[in-house]
Amino acid sequence: MTKPPLLFDSKRVNFRELCDADLDTLAEIYADSATMQFIGDGTAKTRENTRQELKKIYAFYAEKGYSVWATELKSTGELIGRSGLLDWTLKEEQHVEVAYLLARSFWRQGLGTEIARAIRDHAFRTLDIDHLISLMYPDNAGSARVAEKNGMSLVGTVTLFKQEVLMYRIERSQWNALQKMERE
Question: Measured between alpha carbons, how far is 139 from 37 in angstroms, rounded to an integer?
Answer without folding.
Answer: 10
